[in-house]
Design a protein that fits this description.
Elements (H helix, E strand, L loop, with lengths): L1 H15 L2 H24 L24 H17 L7 E5 L9 H24 L3 H14 L1 E6 L5 E4 L4 E5 L5 E11 L5 H6 L1 H4 L10 E12 L2 E8 L2 E2 L5 E4 L5 E5 L12 H4 L1 H21 L4 E3 L7 H6 L10 H4 E3 L5 H21 L15 H15 L2 H21 L7 E5 L3 H21 L3 H7 L2 H11 L4 H4 L3 H36 L1
Antiparallel strand pairs: 1-13, 2-3, 2-10, 4-5, 5-6, 6-7, 7-8, 7-9, 11-12
Helix pairs in contact: 3-5, 3-13, 4-14, 9-12, 13-15, 15-17
């Protein structure tokens, strides 16, 4: 089996070259976009995309205003709490119709209970592994740069890659063909067997180490519509045991974009769409800050030829006497630019209002608490969908579904043989929320006409079925069918007849006894 993988890898090397060479040959497209990403980060969260020469001891640029940072953090928090609600299950495991064909109602009920337990186990697993922490950083990267990649650590959380760490190549419809990740790692942090494998390239003849950091390349190649090959290299050498093959649903790498552009390998972030306003706000804020600093300065001037001495004035204590006419001899610097600063202040207010609307700073917040309701989550999902123009739906399908699938691969892989995760916080949940609201509005409108109108014109079973459907529940399990209602009515009528017969028979017996006694 391993020999077949190595043979296939040789063929891939002939087609793509080594991972390092492919990365170098295709990095130019990404580098042409990096300045835009870096500008977006410097106006919001500079640490997300630092300068090329930045290290841990360097000082990151600090913007003059915090609107960009606040906007990114607020929007990222809303997306996180909507994609991964703190309470409740945000997906359903519905069995395929073919898989449950012929099953009895009891078997279906038992299966539904078991799948519900699996759903709870997945949510608990996400909480235990603290997956929200890396996903929060992932969302911020998406908002700022428009690109990010996740790696599902086996039996662990996610590792987040910034777009400056990988190169990706897509086809004309956006499907990933090839991608390569470049990570700089400490040589001593690598496994011993890997250090031994690359020892000849990292040591001199006397055995001393020539470098402390090495670049590790991870190559991901799409062989067919549903199959990928992954391997890792250091200095052109394939690391032993890293050649792996995955089907698409088991591939532990999730590459995301905020918005897609036709025939482009990388996406565009939300911040990039508002760079003009952010730059204007930064420049105007800098002007106001520096102007305010100048206006706040206290400088005194002494008339040339004055008998007063600067030393006497500097050393004078509060309330002391100084010989001389201070009002005539001393002048105070006055900038008098307050009226001029009103123009940039007004424009700053307009820019803050526009950016606040774009990043939902002025909209309602989801309470991050144990009592956060599903209605709050659905309402914010609808708000995100309306504000961001479909981005939330894209994240629900391209991030949530693959993430749940990868988690299920570790917890209950057999479940995926007969069911597919269905996201309940995406556009479908928004539509159901609107349906529920519309149904209640209609009922309230009819109720104003009187209860007799409801009984005469409203189809109660159909209304209850629509309510159950809008809440994501199985109407057939909750709402009685017409056949059930008729059967129950017949049973009630039969019971009433039997009761009347018993009462009639008992009365006849009493009358007979009375007549016999006479």
């Amino acid at each position: 089996m391993e020999d077949n993988k190595i043979h296939e890898l040789h063929e891939l090397h002939e087609e793509y070259g080594t991972a390092q060479s492919w990365y170098t040959n295709n990095v130019a497209v990404r580098e042409s976009l990096q300045q835009e990403w870096r500008d977006a980060a410097q106006l919001t969260l500079p640490y997300v995309f630092p300068p090329d020469d930045q290290n841990e001891t360097g000082i990151l640029p600090s913007p003059f205003n915090s609107i960009g940072a606040s906007g990114v953090n607020t929007l990222a928090s809303k997306l996180l709490l909507t994609l991964l609600p703190p309470t409740g299950v945000f997906f359903r495991l519905l069995p395929d119709k073919d898989a449950v064909e012929g099953a009895t109602k009891e078997e279906l009920k038992q299966l539904d209970q078991e799948l519900s337990q699996v759903e709870q186990d997945v949510v608990e697993y996400i909480n235990q592994k603290a997956m929200r922490v890396p996903i929060y950083e992932m969302i911020k990267l998406l908002i700022i740069t428009g690109n990010t990649m996740l790696y599902k650590v086996p039996n662990g959380s996610f590792k987040v890659f910034s777009p400056y760490q990988y190169v990706v190549q897509r086809d004309y419809v956006g499907t990933i063909l090839t991608q390569c990740i470049k990570e700089s790692m400490a040589l001593l942090s690598l496994p011993k067997k890997v250090q031994e494998q690359i020892k000849d390239d990292t040591t001199t003849a006397d055995g001393s180490t020539t470098e402390t950091q090495v670049d590790v390349y991870t190559m991901i190649v799409r062989n067919s519509p549903n199959n990928y090959t992954v391997w890792q290299e250091i200095k052109g050498q394939v690391i032993d045991g890293t050649i792996k093959k995955y089907t698409q649903d088991k591939l532990p790498y999730i590459t995301l974009r905020w918005t897609t552009v036709n025939n482009e390998n990388y996406g565009r972030g939300l911040v990039s769409q508002y760079l003009g306003d952010l730059r204007s706000l930064e420049g105007l804020t800098q002007t106001i800050v520096e102007g305010s600093g100048i206006s706040a300065m206290h400088l005194f001037g002494l008339r040339p030829g004055s008998q007063l001495k600067v030393e006497d004035l500097n050393n004078a204590q509060n309330g002391e006497f100084v010989s001389g006419d201070l009002e005539r001899e001393i002048s105070v610097l006055q900038v008098n630019k307050g009226a001029d600063l009103q123009v940039p202040l007004q424009l700053i207010g307009q820019l803050e209002q526009r950016l606040g609307k774009a990043f939902m700073l002025m909209a309602g917040q989801i309470r991050d608490s144990e009592r956060t309701t599903a209605t709050e989550v659905r309402a914010t999902a609808a708000e995100l969908e309306a504000t961001l123009g479909g981005v939330f739906s894209v994240l629900a399908s391209e991030f949530q579904a693959p993430m749940i699938t990868l988690v299920l691969q570790e917890l209950e892989p057999n479940v995926l043989k007969f069911t597919v995760p269905s996201i309940t916080t995406g556009i479908s949940a928004i539509s159901r929320e609107r349906d529920y609201t519309n149904l209640n509005t209609m009922l309230q409108s009819i109720a104003q006409l009187g209860p007799e109108v409801i009984g005469k014109y409203l189809n109660i079973p159909a209304y209850l079925s629509q309510i159950a459907t809008s809440l994501g529940m199985d109407a057939n399990e909750i709402v009685k069918s017409q056949e059930q209602i008729q059967a129950e009515q017949q049973q009630q009528q039969q019971a009433m007849l039997e009761q009347q017969a018993m009462q009639t028979g008992g009365q006849m017996a009493v009358d007979s006894n009375k007549q016999g006694g006479q």
